[in-house]
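Person: Please comment on this record:
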Amino acid sequence: MDICDVIIIGGGPAGLTAAIYAAREKEKVILMEKGVTGGRACEAEHIDNYPGFPEGIGGMELTQLMFEQANKFGLEYLTAEVINIELGQNKKVLTNIGDFASRALIICGGSEKGRLNVPGEAELTGKGVSYCATCDGPLFSGRPVAVIGGGSIAVNEALHLARFASKVFVVHRGNKLRAPQILIDKAMQEPNIEVLTRQAIEAVEGTDKVTGLKLKNLASGESFVLQVDGVFVAVVSNKPNTAYLKGILDLDDSGYIIVDERMQTSIKGVFAAGDIRRNSIKQVVAACGDGAVAAFYAREYLK
């Protein structure tokens, strides 16, 4: 088995930035991503708080530029799901396409997508239930849809869907949206976006496809069915992708990886960056900073 210098797990902003820094140092770097390059950031329709883009930039466009920059320095990219890791002098990463080894490891696996865990969600996933408006929005052109959530992700999803759907309902359990006011203002300017607060999700309705969303009004206690053809789940998950790391690295009570100021984990030569680490503020710019720090100190470790 060939041993490379650094393996990076996760292709979101943290992993891509770590890849840029490591590959630029002429290290042999492998980046592994099981899903879409760019991670959760690529789902954002518009990011207007990332430095250097005064007019804002789409999350997919931004992360694609990061990916191209890392490739320029000789990055090796693999579509693979990590199953387990074995730690010793070298770090062995076991995946669904084979095993790989490196001298240093940077874990940037992020967190899982939030689920509603209501009847009909699992059965209708891919049949009207979606977790990515950027991916599936055009499929609902001229049709009513609902976005579930009240944070930045949900409002960004609604803004993207407003370009295609006849009506976009933003359904939120709380009294008001939690997104930054600038995003809320943009959404309120869209004539086909309507916000429904104080609504609990009881079920996704339909047999072969989504036909509606059963809601319970928390103010009145009454249930009703919102007629929509699509349901886009945009709730934030607090569950990091660390199930395979239990008993291997020190994790906090919520499963996040514990790191020091160098992004060093409890094992020397193993670093963690981005949303997967404890106390991350879950912003793209912060994830990029984490990735840079992790790559810098991984380089120090290798030396």
Residues 3-112+238-302 form a domain with the FAD/NAD(P)-binding domain fold (CATH 3.50.50.60).
